[in-house]
Amino acid sequence: MSVGDRARDALARLVDASAAERILISIASLVLAIAVGTVLILVAGRMTTCAPSSAVYYFNVGFCYDPVLVFDRLFLGALGDPLRGGWSPDGQFAITMRETTLLIFTGLSVAMAFRAGIFNIGTQGQMVVGGLAAALGTLWASPFLSGVTGTLVLVPFGILVGAVFGGLYGAIPGLLKAYAEANEVITTIMLNFIATGVTLYLVSDVFKDPNSPANQTVPLPDYAQFPALLFGARQDFSLYALFFGVVTLFALYYVLEHTSFGYDVRTSGIQPEAAEYGGVDAAKTIVSSFALSGALGGVAGALYVTMVIGKFQSGVPAYGFDGITVSILAGNNPLGVGFAALLFGVLKSGTTAVQFATDVPPQLVGVLRGLIILFVAMPEFFRLIGRRLVKPTDQSKTIATDGGESNE
Amino acid sequence: MEVSPMSEENTTTLFGREFGEFSSRTTAVVAAIVALAATFAAGIAFPDSIAGTLTDILTSEGTLSSALRLSVPIALAALGGIFAEKSGVINIGLEGLLIISAFTAIYVTDITGGVWIGFVGGVVASVLLALLFAIVVIEFRADQIIAGLAVWLIALGLAPFASQVIYGRPNSPSVDTPGTIAIPVLSDIPFFGALFDASPTVYLMFAAVALSWYVLNRTTFGRWVRASGENPKALDTAGVDVSRIRYAAVLLSGVLAGMGGAALSLDLGQFTGNGPTMVNGKGFIAIVAYLFGNYNPVGAFFSTLLFAGLDAMQTVLQLQGIGLPRQLIRIIPFVMVIVVLAFVGRTRIPAAAGEHYDTGDDNR
């Protein structure tokens, strides 16, 4: 039994749950993760030291960290405090939208592969490669153009370059899996390390900005960067990019559900033997799914470069790994990725708000992320609780046969 | 290292499909030995060339001793992975077990002052996390890969979080190390003396490799573990509780990985929690090591030594400032893993690995 089979098993189990049940499980996982997080904050608050005046008291016990404040900052802070008045379109909310936009692409990248029965942990590496390629491509092309035409040509060009190189880098584990039967979980993890190492070398040596001590390329000219629309200029967010992300969500949904390529992908994801019997070229499907997945990761890298930092710099944040969480939480459904990306956009942006308002270490959000995945992975646990709460009645099992979209 | 794709294909067609895997692995090993011999020959003939420097590095006692030190966490985690996967539970969370035990070992040593108390503390933390994983996977039938990933992510957040809470920064302060034990006379042997002048954790690794091989291949428990991964139904029919065997195997992987993580941080006397933490992918390399070693503890140990040797070499190469830039030398082990997988990709994993086993008598 290969890793592909295992991933397919995972898929089948996630598909097993009906859409409504899956949404319920996702929400319950989030709530449970917050509950465990609360306990963790309280325990951590007992283990650290602080002035008695800054402590918060519950049941006459003093705690250095206040979970209520933490989750208030994490969620409301991330939305720019809509309840307090003085909401600004250029504040924390724009950062949340920026994170959401990037997570939509990395989430779609992972979801795309997952639907084909492939576990792509390499989105991070594909994003890094795509980002560097987009920066170098745009820098190469930018002297030929300027002004509004420059923006109109260079921004799509950068995204295209990012997609192509991300796609090529994604095709490597695809080829290794299709023709050498190499375990993609391991090859993609290794390729992440390799991408980080090689790009670090390139931007610290060959393509280094001579005027900067940091390992980065020369900054892109302003006209080669994503223009802001309505809000978010100060926070490096562009509404155009979010529109692009939402359009991509629906496009991928359409491709997976209503095209013959999507049919091949879904059938090989669920029943590879049947798919092959039905004439699907398994190797070709694996490589093209992996390449498309990598291309989406590459676009995330290109957006990170042209919208967020305006150059390529070593140490790209772990959007690729968050993409795994986003996709798992969304049950690998492209439309669900939109909601899951928003949730994790809030968590990521809220981390800054938490850091600003409290002394709680920001790694807490990493723990929450792990807990959410853990809980989402065990629907059986929630069914058990559900059965305890509600007296078992008729257990009619629903099995979706169309590759993840249950019609309940 | 030159591994010709031609020879691999030839053996596959010559000996047929089922011998293909075995012979490609043999081909890789033979090619590695030939490349090594060629390097030595060139190095002795031209001492001033790069081959000469490589020969110096490869034959130095320092390289062997640092390769052994680097092997400890990887080999122990790989042994743990073998037990879990042989029993039918793929434990991709080894990385997380290493992280949590690396931190806890330092923390307990810091508060108690005893290095070996800290070591036990690290193992306990790892076993607890492995227990959580086992419950989630065996009791609640969670997907093993996703749950393993969650174990990694939880530990990756929790250890630096705890360090930040306790020490105010992601890196711990320095604590005592177990030091080294030198065996008289034997440690004076040139080159191989490194085997007898090492940290106690290195000796522990040797003992664990031998013991794991014995338990897995020569005891009833080992037979049950293998049956639980290959044919759980048969084991069930024979009256052995499959779940119980899997629990035991996963907890054992927690013990072994915990020893690895505790050894990793205690040998350095510090936990570093920045970025991917000090574990930095060792748990994943452990998985590659046991796949390459074909689930044999001794094979896993030697493939670990190969990766650790490469790692030790790149450190020396970096220090000597040889031609290649630092950042590129650092990725050599990762490239090697991919090359190895490309040639030995097809590993026969236990038939029932990754599958939940249902006894069938609880129709829920």
UniProtKB/TrEMBL annotation, chain A:
The chain crosses the membrane at residues 23-44, 102-121, 127-145, 152-172, 184-203, 237-256, 286-309, 321-344. InterPro entries: ABC_transp_permease. It comes from the Archaea. Its main location: membrane. GO terms for molecular function: transmembrane transporter activity. Keywords: Cell membrane, Membrane, Transmembrane, Transmembrane helix. One of its GO terms (cellular component) is plasma membrane. The keyword Transmembrane applies. It is a multi-pass membrane protein. It is found in: Cell membrane. This is Ribose ABC transporter permease.
